[in-house]
Target: Asparagine--tRNA ligase
Amino acid sequence: MELTTVKELFSDREKYLDKEVQVGGWIRSIRDSKAFGFIVLNDGTCFDTLQIVYHDTMENFAEVSKLNVGAAIIVKGTLVATPEAKQPFEIQADQVLVEGVSNADYPLQKKRHSFEYLRTISHLRPRTNTFQAVFRVRSLIAYAIHKYFQEQGFVYVHTPLITGSDCEGAGEMFQVTTMDLANVPKKDDGTVDFSQDFFGKPTNLTVSGQLNAETYAMAFRNVYTFGPTFRAENSNTTRHAAEFWMIEPEMAFADLNDNMAVAEGMLKYVIRYVLENAPAEMDFFNQFVDKGLLDRLNHVLNSEFGHVTYTEAIKLLEEHNDKFDYKVFWGCDLQTEHERYLTEEIFKKPVFVTDYPKEIKAFYMKLNEDGKTVAAMDCLVPGIGEIIGGSQREDSYDKLLGRMKELGLREEDYGFYLDLRKYGSVRHSGFGLGFERCVMYLTGMGNIRDVVPFPRTVNNCDL
Ligand code: 4AD
Model:
């Protein structure tokens, strides 16, 4: 007999009621009295758990009663309705087969564990309610993002993880080498001889797939990447990870307004998809993790995102400079405290900040007519701050080359990128959505370490 999933039992209960079924899963809790016992079982296929009642008529009653939380079992029995109880039904077991016992020192007990403690056992935490909800929703968000772009005809491009360029120009890269670091080959002038390295030149893990994605946008028009990115940022915060996933659409014949429209459409689509497809998980977050979550997300669906230029935003924030650790002035980089103030206190909804000073943005952004600002946009959301960073790209060969020279970038490293401006250059735009920040936003989880299965942050690369 095949295993029926708990998900099937809940979604098609009429089919199974009063019939014999077989389910397999892990014990969440177990208690027994003399003649019978109760097991709460989770089989991982849905958020709901299933109650099992077993009796001393079973041959192995004593063995089952001794099982600990975490043990794996297969239960054969009849699904019966329980109109009086909290649960709509339970299984009256005829047989409980023990697949794998769980030692008495099982680190997860029925009580609520702190997220800090659960981070120390990242291999076991997906067995808890919170992390079942987080990682099911993470999976759904990824699916919804693909669905959104595929439905709009975007081509999914797999950009490389090992590259020779620094897209953001921030120098926060993990180097990739096969050289023996204790014995690095040197040139006559004492510098490292990368010609002897695997690729014959310095390489690093990618910080963004954008530059590669742009090349495909010039062939397919609308493309997106969705993959891991790496940043050796020494930022020990709740929203920075050294390894995170990014979604980067890139669109030809699109300006900054088109770019923002796609970003807003995508976020709304994903919110709607998750609310529709994970109602139990979203109710759980709303009840136990972030009380205003559902109201906030529904409000987002029913309103337009705010728009403000960087210059206007600075004026608005300057009025509240007494509240900030870092004082605001035109030309400063917006800190999380400023971003959150704008979106939480002033706009009270997601907001796009546009047209930043060129000095604080990457080399590839299109210079505005004022010669001082670039056609950039960041999307800020309540609770997190920046979730999306994007821009219209500089499509003029001369202006791009000029900017690269100003910043000291080596022309020969970006030949392919400059070529795009030589052969059929078009206005084009794109953005990067930080996937983990998106998961935080939709679940209300407050720390990026709790939305990545195995987080990599400063001083932490366990498992
Ligand atoms: O603003 P960023 O640096 O933009 C880019 O990398 C562009 N190349 C994207 C593009 O236009 N195609 O990063 C984009 C987003 C941020 O808004 C943030 O959500 C996320 O990536 N992000 C991080 N998430 C977690 N940990 C980090 N260390 C992150 N750094 C950026």
Summary: The first strand starts at residue 20 and ends at 32. The chain has a mean pLDDT of 95. Residues 161 and 206 are 5 Å apart (CA to CA). Residues 129-151 form the longest helix (23 residues).
